[in-house]
Amino acid sequence: MSSSGEVLAELLWAEKYRPKTLDEIVNQEEIVSRLKKFVEEKNMPHLLFAGPPGTGKTTAAHCLAHDLYGENYRQYMLELNASDERGIDVIRSKVKEFARTRVAANIPFKIVLLDEADNMTADAQQALRRLMEMYTATTRFILIANYPSKIIEPIQSRCAVFRFTPLKKEDVVSRLKWIADQEKVEYDLEALEAIYELSEGDMRRAINILQAAAALGKITVESVYKVVGLAHPREIRQMIQLALAGNFNEARDKLRELMINYGLSGLDVIKQVHREIFSQDIKLPDEYKIIIADLAGEIQFRLVEGADDEIQLNAFLARLAFIGKKLKS
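Above: the chain sequence. Below: its structure as tokens.
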């Protein structure tokens, strides 16, 4: 039987993450209202959907096409993934052939959806720029990009830009809870919050982590970090605290344990260390956090350049031990 305190905590958690009455696309209400205007008017400009992965960009494009054309909307939409078909030949053949024909429907244009358009070559983008001018009467282009800065300026200026934001914690967690309940999977509430922290607002990644963790049985914080191949933050904090306390040998042993048990690379460790430095569990004056963050950046650069993982991380722990001595003095 759960204690009354645990029941109260679960009720408070459920209230905090209770699903809200939202429109079709979570956390993108302003974008939805603008897209609905296009549907009402049965007209729209070229569009550029920009933002981090897993926030609903491709889904929004399909919803827009569905509302414009109905159930058979795929007849009037050409979908290409620009990371696979990103050369100038595709633009000149597939896209041009589709764009030059008129549509026999109530809507006077068809849609070309270019997913991951930021992976298109410069030549392909220049060719696309010309097509967007020539076939405006019969075709509208929707470009989807994680990094809109990689899209050339002439194309950006021809598009209405929609910037998607990462999903909020309560939206991601409530959806994960709903999925777990539907699949009858046991879970800890803290584990769902840990999944959100790891996904960084990417719903697609959050669901993948949830499914992978569920394969191990009950979803716990430990199983979540195990399936993503990262150490539990508690163990990273222990290593940092040992080093700051001057226990260099124990901190080094802890580092070896983490790298062997979890199969972590040096980059994995330093990224987790950087995250934990700024957590509330590490009690340090701000000036020392700045010094350690700068040092972590230097170590990360050395690792990227090909330096030995263990030597560099041992050097990092040694510097933490010196910083710990300064704190005591």
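Residues 168-227 form a domain with the Helicase, Ruva Protein; domain 3 fold (CATH 1.10.8.60).
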